[in-house]
Amino acid sequence: MVTTEESGSRARTRQAILQAAIEVLSRNPAASLAEIATAAGVGRTTLHRYFAERSDLLAGVVAEGVTRLNRATRRARLDSGSGAEALHRLCAEYFELGDLLSLIFADPQLVADPAWATEVCDDDFHGVVARGHADGSIDPALPSTWLQSVLWAQLYAGWSYLAEHDVSRHEVLGLVTRTVAGAVALRR
Amino acid sequence: MVTTEESGSRARTRQAILQAAIEVLSRNPAASLAEIATAAGVGRTTLHRYFAERSDLLAGVVAEGVTRLNRATRRARLDSGSGAEALHRLCAEYFELGDLLSLIFADPQLVADPAWATEVCDDDFHGVVARGHADGSIDPALPSTWLQSVLWAQLYAGWSYLAEHDVSRHEVLGLVTRTVAGAVALRR
DNA sequence: CCGCAATGGAACATCACTGTTCCACTACGG
DNA sequence: CCGTAGTGGAACAGTGATGTTCCATTGCGG
């Protein structure tokens, strides 16, 4: 660790604020700091103690997002099975990111943050697609960058579908993976 | 017509403002009115003459969006061919909506506008899917509401892909339709 | 040429959000 | 029991967006 450790209390408050920020900003990227503080069950003053300026909070959210995303990618164990199978697992793991998915879509310029480009391991994804192209489980006519767009769009569709319709999380995940699988598969 | 006709000049300015609003808001839903006015090549004062408050402008944008959407739906001639074929044409027509697609995604609460629910003909879409379920061209495991989410998500993916990568409009439309076709098709 | 429609710019009050300071309160360990 | 860390609330000035008013300019038809 380069930075000094925080007390348990501070670390907990910090996480509460980040979590609240993700939830609130995913619904409204222009939300005020007061809204976020309230959602975190914290005074606005306290929020400013942890993140002096709005941009600091946003940077914190990006960092937290990158961390969660990388954890999910690791959990997907992309190096085993066919390309399509790995993609299927990745889909399921990313789906669990929940609000973060909405946030990524609601505020694309957050993803434009330099930290995102440098710390998120896109290469793993492209590797999976290349493997899928080679082993015949992924349509070679669909480039890797396009499939990345498709995957995210589909995940977002699933998450917002979950919010709007009265269906179970599991059921929606089934729809998402089935749809992605169909979109990706080689045509006869 | 219930409302009084406007002079040619006024109608043109009004359209310029609405078009600029769609373009600017699709990139940043929190854009200021000054930005929109500048993009429209119009003074802020003039903008206020056409739309007294911000909410009036947003209502105008929604109305314009509904109009364009309905025109596109009509152009798709949903009543001919198989369900999947009709969906394919709808996809192509909606893709031409361009910025409007981004706007619908960038500001979902705009679509929550009551005018949207009442004036957009969702029934036509559900009819197409039902036909596709019946004629075997659309997987019956995928409900109509879900396919609606999928279609929009895919269109948005295509449009943002176009903005980020150096590919032709036509090429992207090909990717979108191919992907949607695969996602929708019945599994073997 | 006159008058009207349409416009742009300047100036203004208002408002919400922001970032900051200061003070009071609570909890917890020594 | 005392001191400190963590916190919340009130108050404040600065800033930018908003909505309004007023005036000057342009262009076009009668």
Topology overview:
The structure is a homodimer of 188-residue chains.
Chain A: H1 8-27, H2 33-39, H3 44-50, H4 54-75, H5 83-95, H6 99-106, H7 108-111, H8 114-119, H9 122-135, H10 144-164, H11 169-184
The first copy, chain A, binds a DNA duplex (30 and 30 nucleotides) through residues 7, 9-10, 13, 32-34, 42-46, 48-49, 52-54.
Which oligomeric form is depicted? homodimer
CATH superfamily assignment of the largest domain in chain A?
Tetracycline Repressor, domain 2
Summarize the biggest pleated sheet of chain A. none
The CATH first-level class of the largest domain in chain A comes to Mainly Alpha
Shape of chain A: elongated
SSE succession of chain A: HHHHHHHHHHH
Spans where pLDDT lies below 50 across 5 or more residues of chain A = none
Greatest chain-chain interface?
A-B, 32 and 32 residues
Residues in helix, % of chain A: over 70%
Protein name (chains A, B): DNA-binding transcriptional regulator, AcrR family
InterPro entries (chains A, B): Homeodomain-like_sf, HTH-type_TetR-like_transc_reg, HTH_TetR
Keywords (chains A, B): DNA-binding, Transcription, Transcription regulation
GO molecular function, one term (chains A, B): transcription cis-regulatory region binding
